[in-house]
Structures are given as structure tokens and as C-alpha cells.
Amino acid sequence: MSSLLENHLINLALTPQANIRRNPCWKLLNCTKVLCPIHGKSDIDCWLEPRTHCTTHLTEDYFEKLAGCLACSYFRARGTNFFKGWNHFVSDQLHRYNVKALERIYQKEESFIEILNRIPDGLFTTDQEWRITYFNPAAEKITGFSAYDAVGMYCKDVFKNPICEYDCALKRAVAEGKDIHNREYLIKNIAGQKIPIICSTSAFYDSTGKITGGLEIFKDTSELKRLQEEVIKRERKFRRIFEGSHDMIYSTNYPGKILDINPAGIELLGFQNKDELLEALSAQDLYFNSDDRNRFLQTINAEGFVKDFEVDFKNRNGSPLHVLISSRRYENPKTGEVEYEGIIKDITRRKQAEVEIKERNRELSILNTIAVALNHTMDLKQILQFTLRDVLKILRLKSGALFLIDREEKKAVLAVKHNLPDMADDQADPISFKDEMLKKYLIEETVSFTPKPTFPVFQMRYTSKKGQQLPWLACFLITFKGRGVGFFALQKPASQDLNQRELHLLGSLGNFLGGAIENTRLLDTIQQHRQELRQLTEKLFQSQEEERRRIARELHDEAGQSLTAVKLSLDHLEEKIESADSDLKTDISEIRKMVKRTSSEIRRLSYHLHPTLLIDLGLEPALNLYFNEIEKHSGLSIEFHMVGFDGRISPDIETVLYRFSQETLTNVLKHAGAETFRLSIIKSYPMIIFSAEDDGFGFDDQIIGKDKQSLGLLGMRERASLLGGTFNLRSTPKFGTRIRIEIPFADESSHETIH
Amino acid sequence: MAIDGSKIVHAVMEGSRIRESKGIIPLFGVYLSIASVQYYNTLSFEFENKLRGERAAEAEALLVKAAQECGYATFQGIRNSWEWGEIVKPMIETKEDQIEGFTAVSVAFGWGDLVVKELIPHEKLVIRVTDSYEARGHLEHYGMTESGKCYMLRGVAGAFMDLLYGDDYPDGCFDYSAQEPFCRAKGDPYCEFVARKSSD
Amino acid sequence: MTAFNWQSELARDGSRVFVAGLPVAMHCHHYNINLQKTLEDTLGDEGIQLLFHSAEEANRIGFTSFFNEYRQLKTNKSKLEMAAVIYQNSGFGIIHLQGVNRQGGTILSPSSHHVTGWLAKHGLRDTPGCHFTRGWIAGVLEAVFDKPAGHYTIEETHCKMMRDKECVFQVTGV
């Protein structure tokens, strides 16, 4: 007995019996246990309450508690005071306790069922024959079976999976002697739809270890499965993109460890497989210039991303790769580490293509410059200078020269050079070819080859004025119609080889330039011939004028004097003849007339050939006289003016203008059928303008030079041209003809000196 | 240990007396019903009559098929049942002993006095029945005939072999099929069912 | 209630099993439902009719014989009660025959072998499927009320195979 109870009994013995009914135990026994469930509750019977402080906290067993109570003086006092006596008191108290205990059990069971009904997962229990004994609402919802129908059915018939027949989860739990967790099944609900579930099972055993049934909790994982499938699908999709991308896709961490890379990246960096690459490389190793990695990190850490970050990578062999990086920075949610992931696009080929296009554009631009130069200048040296300069620029060379082949002299001539010394001019042949045979074929033309050889690159050198022999120059032939007309001689470092494209360019340029050189040469020849022709023409005109002058003089002097002598002889003869002889006189008179006529004709002819008046008095009087005479004989109305002439001009020009007037008027008289002829000669520094027009038939001015009649016009044009002037004729059938000639003249002072 | 058929029959008789409150008899993993043999016979033979003529073979095949499917699922359920584990399994020593268990259950169900006459593993099963309710029913209501009429037992004989030697459940159904060379309905002294591999 | 004792009425004679002297066979839901499905799939409405008539005939004959044997069952009510007990004891389920009389009425069934079997094997269906029970009801009523075969038409207006709460049968006498 506890000391507490002893104290109680002592106290109780001192307490009058009457107080027992009125007072609760804690008052009668002076109990200080204020946490006792009875303390302060006067209407409660302490022996029916568990865990009162007068017993112990350790036991829940009612009978043990009752044994304690039976020894308690308070309990005994209450029992003996019970109106039916002690025995009834004890029996009544036991009955009341049992009722309370059963209520508690039922309450407990109901609350368990309530809990089971409320759990969101499907739950059912079975008996030992696997027939369902309890089926919660969540299980009803998942399977479609009502609890009423399901209870009593074998669980395999509700879940309808063949696996239930040979690998039942409950039976497995029994067989393995432990609970089975998270097994996945596919069941069919009442409507025949397949539903994935995940379940856990436990077997129930009785106290002898015999199975009494089982419990299964299951969850509809359709949504979970759908999400898993979605995740898998997405994962596959992204994996497909990752694996199938033609661009490198990667992820790295901050220190530079490559975490993942796709096949395109592995190939780009020149590796066989991912493991090999991950083993061998870190992010720093990718950069051609190591500073670029820092630059990349600075940008991406500041911005959170980079887009089209252009940088040079290198592959396994160290070859440069030009790439564009588009990446983002993120924090790995699992590790908390900063990582980078993104796409790297290899633009090496694109870049090369761009460079090539730029190069091509530069070449085209240079070719265009050469073409413009060819178009704008006929100066061969200037063209060659341009071309050499640009060729050196294209090939990134510092010095070189351009030689032309002189076919007549059988030697190569240095045409232009850049940054090379002058060639010696005191040597018979300062040029030497590495292949002398080539020189003989190409320059000296002393040998020939069949078939004709082609010349890729050959080498020559020359001796400078200072007697220094230059290093070998790489030469590229310039051809015209397959024949060498010259060559580029370029000073090229031994390390620099020309690529195919540059060789091709030089070949094209060689052909192009060959044509230009030949054309220039031909043009020079034509101009030279033309000059000679002009000189000849000028000479011809001069000779013609001189011849005319000589004939006129001889006619005037020789024939005139002879005719004068004839006339005097006739006078003398007439005097001798008798006056009666009239016939003879008549004859003599006739002869005299003939002589006079002939004399007059010779004078006219002489004047026509070279008018003396022109020399003596000048252009205007000479032309006035000439036109008056024509007017007299032809009936043509002639209007003639000279303007701006305050003195004589050069006799040659006077003669020319006189001849122009003669020729024009002769044409009008012969072909125009005109009534009026107008001529004005105007002196307007620095030109003398000769302007003639008629109102005749006109003609098609396109025929000039094509028939004999227009030869006179051609002569006029040529004369004007020789004097540096211009000749213009405009004629339209029925609307007359107009001629305008402009001739330059020297300053006034020179005119004055003519006199 | 040989299979004691009487124990199984006793278990079925006792078990089939147990009802639950819903009037269902769950036993051996299936739901049993007790119906007049006349019902089954009318159903089968009238069905056959309706398909008489060109579709006669079809009717026969369908009835055997229904029985074989049933036998396959039923006896799979039976051998997985708590009762089987409790009553039959302790008596089984060899795989072939299962057939004895199956026939004992069939006898208990009132299908006839099934006796295994021959069992060659994987090859052949011969079951003899002297009092098949199908044959008896046919003789009583339709008289003598020229072909076997015990479609239910034919299907069940095939299913026994499927369960023992066919593919794993549920893929082994119809791996075997049975014929009924002797039938009381055609004047033989007994009905006999011979099950062999379907391809044989 | 009656003096019928199921324990003694379910008896064996060798390999044969009898209930109240009539030969019976135990069949599981697999066979019953397979037969029903085969007939429905093969013959359609004709198959359904066959299921109905087979059950009707077997039960009409069976229960007529039974009532002849059990003379103590004098009232129709007691006969109907006995039929429901046999229905339950045969494992066919629960059937409430209180709402039916000679002319007809409504019969309810909160559970049945065929419903459980069908749901276990095939799950829900779109049409009422208790053809056996319809035939059983017709046969029983004809036996109880001494009517010829085909006297009653039974329509299943609600069926648990279609997820209805109970199977409901409307009985109409000709």
C-alpha cells in the first residue's frame, strides 16, 4: 500500500461517517494532487475514472485499479453506505464501468471507420479468403463499385487484373511475411477503363500467427502517369532536339567543367564520344584565346544571358572554329551551383565564305578600277602602273614589276615597277630567266614548241643600275590571243604560296591586260598613222595651192605674154596686109578675137586658180569680185557678209576660206538649183565662223563621202580639221543646205604681223 | 499423398451451405450457384437446336468454348483459393495431382462422376464419366443422338490440361482441346473425354 | 415460416446433387455468365428469350414439384417467401417478392449472383442483363399462382449491371 493511501486511511478514520456522502475523496483525504482528473469534481466517482492519482499513472488495467479502490477507505465507506449494501454497490459499479468501456470501444471503432472513410486513398480490407469486408468511398470512386456490391466479392473480381490470379499483392505480403509497398498495377474499373494504381498491402494475423485477412491501400495514379508520360514525352522531345541538333548544345558549371554536350558538339570539337570529351576538356580549353572565356563569363554573369556572342574556339587539333554562343546562366536547383547552358553555332564556314566574298569583292573592285583606268586613259604606262599597284595589293606583296615583250627588239622591257630598283641600261641584256629555254621561246622566239606550252609561274631576275642582281622574281605571263605580250614579275616571300584563286585571278588579269596592252599599241599605231595622214593631207593641200599658184603664174606670165606676142604679131600682120584684102583682115580679126578670148580665159583661169586679188587686197575684195562675176553669169542671188575683220588674217586661212567659198558656191550652182546663196564669215575670237546656206533642193546629208560629188565636201572637212576646226553640214531634201565651219585662229597680234 | 476426393466433396457441400447476407456463395474463389440441371440442359440443347443445320458445328464449338473459358478461369481461381490452400494443397505431391483435385471439385459440383483414366503429361488426358447430367438430360428430353452432347465437360477437360501444361495464366487457354469419343447420349456405356494439344 | 430445412434438403446421391429431390448442378459465375454472353452475342434477342424461357421452364416445373411436395405451404405468400429463401440459398441473391400478386407487381433485388458475376467478369453494361432472374420470377409465379407457361411478362426496368441501385422487375400477367 502506498504511503499516500495510508495517510488517507489515517485521515479517513478521523472523519465522521456522515461526511463521506457529502464530500468527495480529495476533500476527505486532503489530497493535494490538483492534476488528478477527479480533483475539484465533486459529482464524479473516482473509481470509474482511469488514471486517478490515488492509484498510479502506470496502469490502465481496471481490475488492478479496482483492487486499489477496494483497499481504499473512501471507496469502502461509500460502499458500505450504499443503500442496497456493499455487494450491490460493487456489482453496480462494475456494470457501470463495463457500459462506459463498451461505449468507448464503439466510439473508437466509429472514429476509425470515419477516418478510413475520409482518407483520400482507396482502402479495403479482406477476410482470409480475400473477400472484401470493408471498402471506403475513395475505393468506390476509383473502381466504380459501390461498397455494398464490393463487400463480399473477391478482391480480384473488383480489380480485374490477371496478375491477381498469379501474383496477388496480398498473397505476396503473406508469403514474404512483410508489408508490400508501392506496387504498381493496372486495374479495370467497373466501366472497363484501365486505371493505373499504386498500392501497399498488409496482412492481418491473429494472436496465433494465423492470417485473418488483409488491408490494401491504393491510389489512382492516372494523373500521375499522365504527368509522367508527359514528362517522358517532353524529355524525349528535348532529348531528340538535343541529340539531333546540328548545333552544339552544352551545359557547364562556373569553374568550367563540361556537364553535358550533344553529339553535334562532340563532332564539332573533334572527339569520338562524350566520355572522351568530358574527360579531356574543360570549358577554358574550348577558347582559342583564353581571355575570351573571362569576357564571356563577365557578360553572362552581368546580363544573365548572352546572345550571338562571337568568339573563336578551337577543336581537338587546335584548328580555329568561329562560333556564336547563345547561353543562359542559371542556378541548379539541386546543387545550388551556377551553371551555364546554351547553343553554340559553328559559323566558321560562313565566316570563311564572308571573307571570301569580301576578298572577291575587293578583287572585283580592283578589276573594276583597272577597267575604269583602261576606259579613261589610253596611257599604257599609267594603266600598267595602276594594274601593278592593285595586283600587289591583292596579293599583299610589297614589290614587283611589269615587263612588256618587245617583239621587234626581241627583248623584255621593264614597263613599270614598284619598290624595285631601276634596271641597268648599260648592259646588252640585264634580264635572265631561270629557264633559258623559256626565254628563247617567249622573248627571243628562236625556238618553238609543239604543242604550245602553258606557263604557270616562271622565274626571272634582272641586274640593277648599280650592278646588283635582284633575287628571283615570280613571273606570271600576260597574253593576248595565246601569245605572250608581257609578264608580272613579283617579289614574293618563299613562305607565301599563291592559292588557286589568286593564280586564277592573275591568269584572268593577264588576259585582260594582254588585250588592253595590244589595244593600246594598236591605238598608238592608228594615231601615228592618222597623224602621218594629216601631215600628208596638209602637204597635199599646200602642194596643190602652190601648184595652182605656179600654174596661175605661168599661165599669166608665159601664156599671157605669148598671147600678147601673138596679138602684136597679128597687129603687125594686119598692118602689112592690104586694105583690100578684107577676107584676110576678117580672118585676122577673128584670130585676134580668139586670142583675146583665150587671153581672157587664161586670165580667168589663172585668177580662178589663184586670185591675185586675194593676195593683194585680201579675202573680202577677192570674194566680192568673185561673187559679182558669178552673179553676173548665173542669175543666182548672192548675199555675202564679212563681220569682225578689221585687218588681214593669215594668208593660208584666207586661202582656205576662199576655197571653202568657191567649193560651196560651185556645189550650189551645180546641184542645188537654188535662187539665193548666203554666206557670212565672222571673226569671233578664238574662232572664225564660216556659215553658208542656200534655198535649193537640199540632199540627204548621210551620203557625204559615199559618192564622188561629195568629195569636195570631204576636202572641206579635212581642211577644217587640219586647221583644228570643225565642219558641220545640215541638209534636208527640199529645205536647202547649210554649212558651218569653225576654225581657230591665233591671237590678234599675230594677224597684225601678217601684213 | 493421394487426393482424397471425399474431403473435397465434403468441403464443397459444407461451403455451399454457407450464405452471406446478400445470398451469394463465394467459394473456391468463385461465386457458386445451385441450379436445376434442366435449366442448363435446356439452354445448351435449345441453343444447339436454334443453330441446327449449317451452324450446328458453330453451336457445339461455342458451347465447348464457353465451358473451356469457364473451366480455365474457374479452376485457376479454385487452385488459388483459400479453401484449396487449406484443403487440397496439403494432399498434392505432384503437378499431376492437381487433376485429381480438379475432378474431385467437379464431382462435388454435381457435374458427374469424373474419373481420370489416363494422364500423359503435356500430351493427353482421358476422363471418363458414367453419369454426366448433360448426357442424361439429352437422353431424357431429346432421346438418342449420333454425337457427343457433353459440351460442358468437354470444355472443362481441355481447361484442365491448359492449366497444367499450357502457357502461364492467362495466356494458356485453348492450348489444349478435348473430344468426346464416347457419350451415353449416343448409346455408349459412358462418356469419355480426351484432351490433347490443340494443334495435334 | 416453413419447416423447410436447407441443410437436409441439399443432399447427394453418389455423384449427383439434389435440392428437395430435384437434380441440380453447382456452377460458378464464369460458366453462367459465359453462357449468357455466348447466347446474347450469337443469337441476340433470341438468345435472351432462350435464357428467359430455360429459367422459366426449369423453375415452373421445379417449383410446381416442390410445392406439391411441401403441402404445408398453403398460402401464396408463404410460397413466395419460400421461393425467395430458396433463391437466396441457391446463391442467386436476394429477391423481394412481397410486391407481387397474381396479377403482377414490382419485384426488387438488391443483389444477385448474375449481377456480381457480370460485374466481376465484364463490368458495366448498357442494357438490363438479369434474364435468368426474369425467367426465374416467371417460373416461380406460374408455379405459385398455377398459371401456364408464358402467363407472365417480366420487364427489368432497372438493373445493377447498368449501375442502378437495385434491380427492379415489373411483372404483368396476361
Low-pLDDT ranges of chain B: none
Give unreliable regions of chain A as ranges: 750-755
CATH architecture of chain B: 2-Layer Sandwich
Q: Biggest sheet of chain B, open or closed, and with what strands and sense? A: 4 strands, antiparallel
**Distance from first to last alpha carbon of chain B:** 33 Å
Strand content range of chain A: 15-25%
Tell me, briefly, the overall form of chain A. Answer: rod-shaped
Top CATH class of chain B:
Alpha Beta
In terms of DSSP E residues, the strand content of chain B is 15-25%
Q: Give the quaternary arrangement of the chains.
A: heterotrimer
CATH topology term of chain B: Muramoyl-pentapeptide Carboxypeptidase, domain 2
Shape of chain B: globular
Give your account of this protein's structure.
The complex is a heterotrimer of chains A (755), B (200) and C (174). In chain A, 49% of the residues lie in helices and 21% in strands. By secondary structure, chain A is an alpha+beta fold. In chain A, strands 12-11-16-15-14-13 form a 6-stranded antiparallel β-sheet. Chain A has a 5-stranded antiparallel β-sheet with strand order 2-1-5-4-3. A 5-stranded antiparallel β-sheet of chain A has the order 7-6-10-9-8, with helices on both faces. In chain A, helix 17 packs antiparallel against helix 18 and helix 23 (619-634) packs parallel to helix 24. Chain A starts with a helix and ends with a helix. Chain B has 200 residues and is of the alpha+beta class. Chain B has helices spanning 5-15, 37-50, 56-79, 82-88, 97-108, 133-141, 151-165, and strands at residues 25-27, 30-36, 114-120, 124-129, 176-182, 191-197. Chain B has a 4-stranded antiparallel β-sheet, covered by helices on one side. In chain B, strands 1-2 form a two-stranded antiparallel sheet. The model of chain B has no long low-confidence stretch (mean pLDDT 89). In chain C, helix 2 packs across helix 5 and helix 3 (45-69) runs parallel beside helix 6 (131-144). Chain C is globular. In chain C, a hairpin with a 7-residue loop joins strand 4 (93-96) and strand 5 (104-112). The chains are: A alpha+beta (755), B alpha+beta (200), C alpha+beta (174). Chains in contact: A-B, A-C, B-C. At the B-C interface, helix 1, strand 2, helix 2 and helix 3 of B face strand 2, strand 3, helix 2, helix 3 and helix 4 of C. Strand 2 of chain B pairs antiparallel with strand 3 (22-28) of chain C.
